[in-house]
Design brief:
The structure is a single chain. 23% of the residues are buried. A hairpin with a 7-residue loop joins strand 8 and strand 9. The strands form 4 sheets. Strands 2, 5, 6, 8, 9 and 10 form a 6-stranded mixed β-sheet that branches. Helix content is 7%, strand content 50%. It has 1 helix and 19 strands. This is Fibronectin type-III domain-containing protein.
Length: 226
């Protein structure tokens, strides 16, 4: 009986001393500026810039948030770290941007990243270039399987404040970056079936054109076909 009691006591002590692993932070829900919108600045700082307010819903197991805002024309990234769920940045007028928030917790080495939303900071322009097409599938780095017709379906989504997308050009190749336009489709189409081979890596992107001749580039995505 004494041996059993010692075993039980040891188990209780082991369980009592065991610490729970820190929980990883969760991704936030973005609020404003709204997705694919023209934002409303809170202040005009000078002739070329204005202050934009960003807000999101707080996430669980998170101590701090990193706001990342990217100028889609120049690639310049601005960041702010805060424990709040509201932050402001001075941004150049008349340019398209993307924004996202990264959740962090000092007790965990994991982070969580929100979706990326596009918006325009208004300026004097009367015509807006379309936002870069959002690649839906295959996701970059994914492994996919052909259907019975030895094809995969490329899927994307386009958006333009002026709502005048004219067409999408689909670049697709085994080379990076893809140089060949394999299809040009109307602006109301968001998918295309493509013939593929197995055990092959493909690269693709979508270039969006509006009725004013403005264009945007989704950036190159890749996937492996099985």
């Amino acid at each position: 009986m004494r041996t059993v009691a010692l075993v039980v006591l040891g188990f209780v002590l082991l369980v009592g001393c065991k610490k729970d692993s820190p929980k990883a932070p969760e991704a936030v829900t973005l609020v404003a500026p709204e997705k694919n919108s023209e934002c409303t600045p809170v202040q005009s700082t000078n002739g070329t810039s204005s202050v934009v307010r960003f807000s999101w819903l707080g996430s669980d197991h998170t101590e701090s948030y990193e706001l990342r805002v990217t100028n889609l024309e120049t690639g310049t990234v601005q960041t702010r770290t805060t424990s709040a769920t509201v932050e402001t940045l001075s941004l150049v007028k008349g340019a398209p941007f993307s924004w996202q928030v990264i959740s962090r917790n000092s007790k965990s080495d994991k982070t969580a990243t929100s979706p990326s939303w596009y918006f325009y900071n208004p300026g004097a322009q009367t015509s807006h270039a379309p936002f870069p097409a959002e690649i839906i599938s295959p996701e970059s780095g994914a492994t996919v399987f052909r259907n019975i017709n030895n094809e995969v379906t490329l899927t994307w989504s386009g958006a333009d404040i002026d709502e005048d997308i004219l067409q999408f050009e689909i670049y697709f190749s085994e080379e990076n970056p893809p140089q060949e336009i394999i299809a040009t489709v109307n602006g109301n189409i968001g998918s295309r079936d493509i013939s593929v081979d197995t055990d092959t890596v493909y690269y693709w992107k979508v270039v969006t054109t509006d009725s004013e001749g403005n264009t945007s580039d989704s950036g190159v995505m890749d996937f492996r076909c099985r």
